[in-house]
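Teaching note: in complex prediction, the entire set of molecules is handled at once rather than each chain in isolation. The prompt given to students was simply: 'Predict the structure of this complex.' The entities are:
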Amino acid sequence: MAKINNNYLKLPGSYLFSTIAKKVKTYGEANPDKEIIRLGIGDVTQPIAPDIIKALHAAVDEMGNADTFRGYAPDLGYDFLRHAIAEFDFKSRGCDISEDEIFVSDGAKCDCGNIQEIFSTDNVIAVCDPVYPVYVDSNVMAGRTGKYDDELKQFKGVIYMPCTKENDFVPEFPSEVPDLIYLCFPNNPTGTVIKKNQLQAWVDYALKNGSVILYDAAYEAYISEEDVPHSIYECEGAYDCAIELRSFSKTAGFTGLRLGYTVIPKRLKVDGTALWDLWARRHGTKYNGAPYIVQRAGEAVYSEEGRKQITAQIAYYMENAKLILNGLKDLGYEAFGGVNAPYIWLHTPDGMTSWEFFDHLLEKANVVGTPGVGFGPHGENYFRLTAFGSRENTIKAMERFKAL
Amino acid sequence: MAKINNNYLKLPGSYLFSTIAKKVKTYGEANPDKEIIRLGIGDVTQPIAPDIIKALHAAVDEMGNADTFRGYAPDLGYDFLRHAIAEFDFKSRGCDISEDEIFVSDGAKCDCGNIQEIFSTDNVIAVCDPVYPVYVDSNVMAGRTGKYDDELKQFKGVIYMPCTKENDFVPEFPSEVPDLIYLCFPNNPTGTVIKKNQLQAWVDYALKNGSVILYDAAYEAYISEEDVPHSIYECEGAYDCAIELRSFSKTAGFTGLRLGYTVIPKRLKVDGTALWDLWARRHGTKYNGAPYIVQRAGEAVYSEEGRKQITAQIAYYMENAKLILNGLKDLGYEAFGGVNAPYIWLHTPDGMTSWEFFDHLLEKANVVGTPGVGFGPHGENYFRLTAFGSRENTIKAMERFKAL
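The expected output is the structure of the full assembly:
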């Protein structure tokens, strides 16, 4: 008699963005004359840059020709892409990461969800609160947590590290030592960052305690300030305690193309076993490589023209971020992030809950954002706006804020 | 202190195809004048068909234009593709599968590896022997098996169902009742099939015992004979006990493009829980959809021109299969498969082991195949050849067999 994985039943009802989508749909249907501006879900809106499109077309042509057709890709990614990544994302910043420590995948969401598999189910994880839901949910599914506490809005057996304006959105060391520590900087949802010396302290903490840091740097390309690390491998000792997860989604608008990668230094060992070997085994057994054409697109991101075009796209979004951040501040809101990340995290006015502010904004301004509490209990009274809209919509949204 | 997933350590050393690759490399380096023909790994060689290439280019152009750019895809796949799949692969064959029961993914290998996650770790699995290694290995990693027995070459706690010429390569009901039953027809590696009444008996068995069948139909497009089911849903009652996994890799040469899908009927329940809900939750949490451009390519597979071109490609490979099968039989080999599948499964002559025959064939004929024992102990004394080579190489390989 087959039995289901009961851990799935611990997950509370509906996913944040489905709830938002339903609310927006209901409002839209009841108010067909209103023009709704969506600054909620973190999806890009700019098209893929011209030189990447050129690379895609060229690769498609190769696939249509018997002499240049490519079948199964190497499990860990094509050398041309792994080489470009190692050179531009790591060696250029002084990080000693070689191309065979890069595992190419079809996106950071999959990697974030799957990476926990190589660890024992009795590891205790620590996450920031608020947090990107995939870290916790994937661990719930694997049985690495207890039940969901409806009152606390937290899973038992998980260490939540509050990140609020009181601690500048940088987690403090928890009282219980975690085995696996998820950190994401520049942060989703808060848009805030960690300074190099603060990240170094976390690396030292992990080394001292034998913990492994799972470092999600999906928004690295948005960093504009000095002294903000682009990679955890800029910290001393990180090769021995940290895995880094990266994405092309926000760097180059690949949300619909799907490309990411994970870095596992070969020297990173747990219990004498190289985590590289385990992750390679997982790739070999349960994955068959990212599409050749998409890997060629990824390579083009690192070409001279590609980099120029990507930089311009990011600058476009960050101009939106500036408009939102300064606009909110001018209106007297407490707002954070938006300088090194495409997210602006505002504190809701007048003691409104996150969902009250969501409804208020949807109904009065026809602007959609994301309720902070959807990312965890310490996101209550916060609200996320994204810089991924068009300039026109961003300006319009800020005018509507003014009129609120 | 982090701890690794020790289940990974149960997996024996090296992956079948890496071992083959190393042996071939060593031989090639020692004999640089020899021209090696590869009929080993099951990768296609024909380029992507013209109308699919056209669809890819069109979709790439859409991604480069702000008005038609697509970001995150729907988790479960675009409706245009799910609709085409439901119509052409199921409704046209009388199967009552609707488009929202189709989960689009980046390939059947991922789906085959991941599907076990929605079941409890204390389910007992049954697999054919020989078998595609992903079914067992992914269950080993999840902790659903005991240790590997070096002598038996089997994992403890797994039910192996021998498939040999003695039972026409169709598994018999095991003495212990399994919870999850992996079946793959047309079969990899044997190239043999199951008749409709035989598959119906398995469906009845699963219904009677509350087991779930995981039915891998990746090679369905190669079926040429009547009375061989293309989908398990052609059997009565299968909606209540079976999940079907499908691939575009062998159907349309997508090994390097990555596209597949899983079918879970909404009515399929275990312990009162719809498996559809669990798999949807997994997609939502740990997956972000197949690339838009690849899904458009998948749609083109079902267009009128696309279907014609695909049919011609499959006919090309199946002509190779015929040349191999008949060639071997003419030479006095016992050979199987090759009529409804692109694989030919031969019984090694003179009592040679699978690896002895591998070395013999590599050294004397410079032809690479796959040792049957690599797929399980009952694959010993068998050997797999694939029909995916070029016509020229296939003919040349058979001439070399003749000269052996």
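Point out the following to students. Chain B has a mean pLDDT of 96. Residues 53-303 of chain B form a domain with the Aspartate Aminotransferase; domain 2 fold (CATH 3.40.640.10).
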